[in-house]
Amino acid sequence: MPVRWGLLKFLWRRAVPVTVLSTLALALLALCWPDVLTPRDFWPGVIVLVQCMLLAKTFGRFASPTFAFTVSRGYSRDALWGHMMLASGLSAITAWLVAGLVLWTGLRGGLHDLWQSPYFPVMAPREATVPLTWLALYGLLLPACHYGWIRAAQPTRDGHGGTFVILGLLVALLVGFRLVRHLDGWLEWLVGVLYVIAVVCLVAGGRILHRSLEVRA
Fold first, then answer.
1. Rounded to an integer, what distance in angstroms lies between the CA atom of residue 95 and that of residue 27?
2. How many CA atoms lie within 13 A of 78 on its CB side?
3. Residue 130 in contact with residue 37, Cβ under 8 Å?
């Protein structure tokens, strides 16, 4: 699918408020979190989830004049969906990258060293891979939230099915992070395969559902 820069800029402008707020929230948390950051921390996941939900809401107003306008410009359903996902991905990458740089550039370690934290600078290298967990959460929750919102817009009785999918994923994540301390051997491979399957199914499901939406100006 070729990138339509005009459409992407139009969608990106709509995502700017969510992007700015989420970037500030995740970066400030990464900077000021008093303990050593771990992949199991709760609040970074909450910020990721809220950003994904807000992006889905921002781009999911299928009954709005804005959506009808973009359809009237001659863009196909696949083009609209693809650029919506691309703009959402850019928003997620922006928040993730800024928060990651807070750790990788030593800004967090330096600040906490000035605050005379007992964890820094000794524990700083241990946090280097934590942003990868946040990126994995974005990769799963972003298509899940879009899928749930798109499914809710369908003129069918099972519109809440997407909400159940999101809740199921959240329960699985909470249980998994609480029960599984370390991934090793076959368990690591199994989790990786299940993750890829879930992401592919959510992305494909959202794309298919988006093709059948009704447009109301």
1. 7
2. 4
3. yes
Are 207 and 148 within 8 A, CB to CB? no
How many structural domains is the chain composed of? 1
pLDDT in tens, 96-122: 999 999 999 989 988 988 888 888 878
15 with 91: CB under 8 angstroms? Answer: yes
Q: Is the dihedral of CA 118, 124, 126, 129 positive or negative?
A: positive
Instruction: Determine, yes or no, domain membership for 215.
Output: no
**8-state DSSP, 84:** H
Cβ atoms 203, 85 nearer than 8 A: yes
**Angle at alpha carbon of residue 155, lines to 150 and 207, rounded to 5°:** 30
Residue corresponding to tokens 């906490």:
112
Instruction: Classify residue 115: in a domain, yes or no.
Output: yes
pTM value surpassing 0.70: yes
- Whether residue 50 is contained in a domain is answered as yes
Give the per-residue pLDDT at 217: 41
For residue 9, the enclosing domain spans 5-210
The answer as to whether 190 is a domain residue is: yes
Give the other-Cβ count within 10 Å of 60's Cβ: 21
Over residues 52-97, the pLDDT tens digits come to 999 999 887 665 666 666 665 667 778 888 889 999 999 999 999 9
